[in-house]
């Protein structure tokens, strides 16, 4: 399929000169002009807006309806709050929320802090930066399923390489994905390995934009390493940091491939069942779209509240 | 910049509009695949067999993937042979590299009504297929003219594809579970491979002996993920005389002494004896890999697993044997077949049934052409699939025996000690998912609280059953 | 080195500073090499082991049973060329759609000030906060039967391409960049009577190369990495993407062949990355910072 291109030569037949803005007569012409301006503007918008409408906004509304409906033998009926009761009474419900929260915390600790610290360190190096950046970004390019299955092989408690390495270091072997206590940590490690390249590179670039004089000035004030980081580096990169934090949280909430492939989704005693996995479970294993939508709606409301709080917070900080 | 050239605004607007419209309008791939073009006259009587002059094309899923070289070759030969009788029927096979039917994809397919004209299902899928209105009632189309061996198909097996009097599919295979063993490991551990353990206590002792061989070898293995854990929990409950759902179909029936004993035995094998290997959260395919590479002594499986291991995992079939399911009270029975997509033309339905009959339900042809299977280096002599009775059974058994390429003795205890079979519970996949947690709890947590695991699962299963 | 960083050059010049620097440098470089190249080495080398060695405890560092046949077997079984071509087709199609529709939309929102522009942008950005996986169910049902045009997009590339346009983050990046284009430049062009399309094409786009690069990378990588959506919307095995194809294969072949397959699947992207690493990495960081 040839992609439609935006070449100006295609842009319509007769090229009569458009009236200059300054030449327009006052009065009714201004209205026509404004109308025309809006029409043009919306002509540019319409493609994306239609896509959003069909594949994003409409599904959101539909999610809302689905949550209060049920389909049996091809007939759809309104069931009030039945789907919500089903979902809340599912013993997996609270566990899934706990797991999601735990995963988010872990993913932020590892996926947010580690790349920043690494970027700080790499940025100090006088050579080899290119090589390190290359390395850290390498896994991002792998097909995620390949990377995840590689981790499954590394994590295997029998013949896996990681336990072998622990043995060499005289550390106790781990059950990794098969231990309800650390299965989630194992998932986050795999996920961080696969994804931290992007964040590290962005932090590095942000660090390079910090004017050197700020550090010199801080040193004149007698600031030590940590104080320099806290008073110069962090404030100077705040915009990037907060943007990345937001993205990280969004990404974390969507995590699906790692638990789905590494622990079969549920994990040992359901310890890696996340809310998103539960939604998937309802919809595509139990064929219960209503329950899936009800749970999805809850997650949606939570995230909407969260994002509102975030926007508010960032506004007050700017003020 | 050539400022003299001016483009009219409306031109720009038109362009963007046009792009968008093409984008949407060009989604011109129609959903219905109903363009087989029934050129032939075709009798309107559903009971009449397909008129060979009828020009029709049908799509069929679960054609063997490239990894199953021999089966794919056979499929192609069968299509060619079928086309000698029906030169105007075009068979379009579709294949999946891994497991052909995965529940999520299957659900998606039904929802989308995107199933092929002739689609593959597990016996347990019937309620879901009917609730999505996905399969054609083929009762009128299936008779002793269209499927000559119909009367010899085990009514229990055929019944799996019926709701009331209405028939919705034809079986391709059936299975009952038994205990698959690795003969090489049995010998090395000083056990007799010709008499596999018959009780769960014997399984435990044998597993311990095999695991003592060391080198990462597990004695007994079981699933605990991907709904397969629950499936095997069910099989074990049945084998011990227990049940998953009570007779009313509304209550869980596994939270009792049988269930507890089952859980405790597995837990002891995993943690006290260390005979179940370290790697858990296994799903279908994992244990096969282990036993094929001589890392596993025993697991519960149907005989057809051997064909899979020989073909796809490069295993040697002489290395395997089978006994009846330990405990021997009941054995989980299941199977699969093909259904016909709802709403396709009568000619297509007839063509689909003609093909299914040729490939799957004719003694001496298709999947029951044992001489060819032997020539292609695939195992012959497995006791299943075998849904025949009467004359057909006699003929087919004789053919199997004549072409047997494997040590039939290795399956003697399995075939000589048939265990009464029992179908899967209602809402099987949902219940299996819940019981996965019980299995993963037992197998991954040394301090697992068996009572609590069963209590939770019981509560969840009750809830699932209470739903309409 | 002219840029001044966290630690002052004076500190580094001291003998203790030098030693510490060398130690940290060696540690980090060594650690990185192990952590990022190690698994890849393991992947490639394990693909050469035979069925027994690949699951041996303890594992062998260098394959003793050299079995290159795994690779040819994996190639045959997986039909990698089809999967790869499919994925590229979806990825570049999605890129084309996003470049045309999202750029036009961002330009309009940034410069043409349409009626309700702010509200529309707000509604677009709102979708950022909703995990795609939450909407997967209604979105999936929508793709089955697209409203108004009543088409089923399942098993067609449109199921990937059109939803990919709803990339609010890319629109946001583009809009931010267009906002930063000097107003005088555009006003001058408008005074000459150039149409908005002309201004976009001749003035805005040429200076937007960096951000277009970033958006392109995000668009392609988005499709390259997606799993759940293509798994649901492209159930036909002949139309699957690489990720879904490997997943389908994963429990149907012996461990060593699977690992060989993973290696083959990873190589094309790694090679492309190594060749274009400078462009990819500089584009990625430069663009997202300015955005």
UniProtKB/TrEMBL annotation, chain A:
<keyword id="KW-0813">Transport</keyword>
<keyword id="KW-0812">Transmembrane</keyword>
<feature type="transmembrane region" description="Helical">
    <location>
        <begin position="289"/>
        <end position="311"/>
    </location>
</feature>
<keyword id="KW-1133">Transmembrane helix</keyword>
<feature type="domain" description="ABC transmembrane type-1">
    <location>
        <begin position="97"/>
        <end position="310"/>
    </location>
</feature>
<keyword id="KW-0472">Membrane</keyword>
<feature type="transmembrane region" description="Helical">
    <location>
        <begin position="182"/>
        <end position="206"/>
    </location>
</feature>
<keyword id="KW-1003">Cell membrane</keyword>
<feature type="transmembrane region" description="Helical">
    <location>
        <begin position="39"/>
        <end position="58"/>
    </location>
</feature>
<feature type="transmembrane region" description="Helical">
    <location>
        <begin position="101"/>
        <end position="122"/>
    </location>
</feature>
<comment type="similarity">
    <text>Belongs to the binding-protein-dependent transport system permease family.</text>
</comment>
<protein>
    <submittedName>
        <fullName>Sugar ABC transporter permease</fullName>
    </submittedName>
</protein>
<dbReference type="InterPro" id="IPR035906">
    <property type="entry name" value="MetI-like_sf"/>
</dbReference>
<feature type="transmembrane region" description="Helical">
    <location>
        <begin position="134"/>
        <end position="155"/>
    </location>
</feature>
<feature type="region of interest" description="Disordered">
    <location>
        <begin position="1"/>
        <end position="27"/>
    </location>
</feature>
UniProtKB/TrEMBL annotation, chain B:
<keyword id="KW-0732">Signal</keyword>
<protein>
    <submittedName>
        <fullName>Extracellular solute-binding protein</fullName>
    </submittedName>
</protein>
<dbReference type="InterPro" id="IPR006059">
    <property type="entry name" value="SBP"/>
</dbReference>
<feature type="region of interest" description="Disordered">
    <location>
        <begin position="30"/>
        <end position="50"/>
    </location>
</feature>
<feature type="signal peptide">
    <location>
        <begin position="1"/>
        <end position="25"/>
    </location>
</feature>
<dbReference type="Pfam" id="PF01547">
    <property type="entry name" value="SBP_bac_1"/>
</dbReference>
<dbReference type="InterPro" id="IPR050490">
    <property type="entry name" value="Bact_solute-bd_prot1"/>
</dbReference>
From TrEMBL, chain C:
<feature type="transmembrane region" description="Helical">
    <location>
        <begin position="199"/>
        <end position="224"/>
    </location>
</feature>
<keyword id="KW-0812">Transmembrane</keyword>
<dbReference type="InterPro" id="IPR035906">
    <property type="entry name" value="MetI-like_sf"/>
</dbReference>
<feature type="transmembrane region" description="Helical">
    <location>
        <begin position="20"/>
        <end position="44"/>
    </location>
</feature>
<comment type="similarity">
    <text>Belongs to the binding-protein-dependent transport system permease family.</text>
</comment>
<feature type="domain" description="ABC transmembrane type-1">
    <location>
        <begin position="84"/>
        <end position="276"/>
    </location>
</feature>
<protein>
    <submittedName>
        <fullName>Carbohydrate ABC transporter permease</fullName>
    </submittedName>
</protein>
<feature type="transmembrane region" description="Helical">
    <location>
        <begin position="88"/>
        <end position="107"/>
    </location>
</feature>
<feature type="transmembrane region" description="Helical">
    <location>
        <begin position="158"/>
        <end position="178"/>
    </location>
</feature>
<keyword id="KW-0813">Transport</keyword>
<keyword id="KW-1133">Transmembrane helix</keyword>
<feature type="transmembrane region" description="Helical">
    <location>
        <begin position="119"/>
        <end position="138"/>
    </location>
</feature>
<dbReference type="InterPro" id="IPR000515">
    <property type="entry name" value="MetI-like"/>
</dbReference>
<dbReference type="Pfam" id="PF00528">
    <property type="entry name" value="BPD_transp_1"/>
</dbReference>
<feature type="transmembrane region" description="Helical">
    <location>
        <begin position="257"/>
        <end position="276"/>
    </location>
</feature>
